[in-house]
Amino acid sequence: MVDPADLPASVLEFLTPSRYCESDAMTELAWDVFSSVPRDWALAQAVCDWVHDRLAFRYGSSSPSLTAAAALDQGVGVCRDYAHLAIALYRALNVPARYVFGYLPDIGVPDPGTPMDFCAWTEVFIGGHWHPFDPRNNQRRIGRVVIGRGRDAADVAMVTSFGQLDLESMTVVAEISGTQRPRTALDVR
Questions:
Q1: Domain map of the chain by residue range?
Q2: Among 76, 110, 143, 153, which is disulfide-ready with 61 (CB 3.0 to 4.6 Å)?
Q3: pLDDT digits (tens, 9 = 90+) for 47-86
Q4: How many beta carbons lie within 10 A of that of residue 142, not counting itself?
């Protein structure tokens, strides 16, 4: 990881606090926990591991206004909260990090028996490139389908609507290239 002065201008916005990722409020915690970790790939993974171990995943436990600090305080959240907390810690450590959301197919992992869902994860700027880290699942996965990237969920909301919204149908299929049979699908009616 490099000194912020040596980073490309295009990644500097991913070092500052944002609506859901209040890195300025997490600086002391971040440096207390991670100051002894080498400032390389190990640091990015250590933050991911720490967040994974601190939050319990539970559908319905979050809200549109829940911040990273609030998720840490309550100890429970959804993938969005895991991502926000990790991003806040990365930024507090002067590591550029951004929010990503999309689909995470169950390709190459045991079938959980449930339909594919929206998912949020992080990307961390290491060695001049963005790399995915997923503090909720905390494992390398293939087949991620990116819908949006930004500083946090406020930049790339899953849905922005004005007035009533009735979703009638949506199907997303993810498959291994060259196969005829879909591996995972999301079907909403």
A1: 6-160
A2: 76
A3: 999 999 999 999 999 998 999 999 999 999 999 999 999 9
A4: 11
